Amino acid sequence: QVHLVESGGGLVQAGGSLRLSCGASGRTFSSYGMGWFRQAPGKEREFVAAISWSAGSTYYADSVKDRFTISRDNAKSTVYLQMNSLKPEDTAVYYCNAVDANYDPFASWGQGTQVTVSS
Question: Rounded to whole angstroms, how far apart are CA atoms 104 and 93?
Fold first, then answer.
C-alpha cells in the first residue's frame, strides 16, 4: 500500500507560481511512476502530469504543458509539481498518486491540497 500526503497549495494571483510536494510511504517509492491530478469544483478529477520511476520520462496534459514541471526525489520519497504562470482555471484541489504504465492511478487518494488562483 502507498500512503500519500500532499502539501504546498495556497492562494496566488494569476501569473504567479506555487510548488506542490507529495510525500509517499509504504511500498518502495522508486519502483513506480507518480502523477499529479486535479479536481475543480463541479468537475471530474483530471490528469495533470506524470513522471516515470527513474524520472527519465515525463508527460503533461496539454493545458499545463510549458507551465508546469513534475520532478521527483527518490531518496526523499517525494514528488513535486512546480507550477508557473498560473491561471484562474488552474484552481482546483491537487492530488498525487502512484501511476501504472498507462499513467492511471492505482493507490488510495490522499487529502489533496487546494490551489486557488485569483484573477
Answer: 18
Residue 95 vs residues 79, 92, 119: alpha-carbon distances, Å: 11, 9, 23
Kindly give the residue spans of alpha helices, DSSP state H, lying in 43-114.
Answer: none
At 29, phi and psi to the nearest 5? -60, -40
The residue assigned the cell 490522499 is 110
Residues in the chain where the model's pLDDT stays below 50: none
User: At residue 66, what is the residue type?
Assistant: D
Task: Please answer whether residues 90 and 114 qualify as being in contact, where contact means their C-beta atoms are separated by less than 8 angstroms.
Answer: no
Could you tell me if residue 77 is left (phi over 0), alpha (psi between -120 and 50 degrees) or otherwise beta? left
